[in-house]
Amino acid sequence: MAASDVDRERAGIASAGDDTSPPAADSEDQGVAMTLVEHLEELRRRLLIAVAAVVVGSVVAFFFWHRILGFLLTPLPLIANALTKGRPQDAQLVAHGIGEGFTVALKLSLAVGLALATPVLLYQLWGFIAPGLTRRERKYAAPFTVLGVLLFALGLSVGFVVLRYPVQWLVQFGQDKFIYLVDADSYFSFVAYFLLAFGVVFEMPLVLTFLSLVNVVNSRLLGRKRTYAWFGMWVVACFITPGADPYSPVIIGVAMTALYELSIVLMRILGK
After folding, report:
1. In 3-state terms, what secondary structure has residue 34?
2. Most distant CA atoms of the chain, gap in Å
3. How far is 191 from 172, CA to CA, in rounded Å?
4. What is the per-residue pLDDT across 166-202, written as a single tens digit (0 to 9) for each?
């Protein structure tokens, strides 16, 4: 009996020793545990880095604000401004206050600074949520960051290409009854919201594919709910676009529908 008790005790010690390795692997697979204070410190540090990136990008953009302003005036028709002398390079916008020109330049620089800081912002966002992800999910950090930047840039490019259609429609509407003196602040607010809407919408495949990788959605679910998703996207397209023209919601709605279907294709390629 004494020998059997000793054997059982040794077996228990051995099994207890064997049980120590799997939890370590599980903890590694589930991410690193952090306290609330550590989370707040990490959030503060990454927010400071993100703000610094935006400030640096805005300062750089401010030195080129004149060229950026001229580039964004390209979609604006000459008939939109009675101050235009007949050549595109002579187009002028109306400023109502003594400092409005400087304010518009600051807003323009800030918007461009945000666009330039997008890689840093996405990297800091991923770095903050990475400790809560599994090891399999964290390996997608670099591809998703690069893809997110490319999709955002593609969205801005497509938005700028199609920007001329809503702008021309709005300006030519009632041109025989109105003399348009385009306000600088309102014009660049319209352009900024329009391009931002395209940049955000083009992130849809990235977001949906990431949700599929963490087992929140899958291609079959999105396929079954396609009708409801399309309806919701077209309703959203009517509210996220500035202005009252008929082109903006249609362009955004078509883009969202195509990107939704692209997300389903990507999920099937990944086997989700």
Report:
1. coil
2. 109
3. 17
4. 887 877 776 677 777 778 888 888 888 888 888 888 8
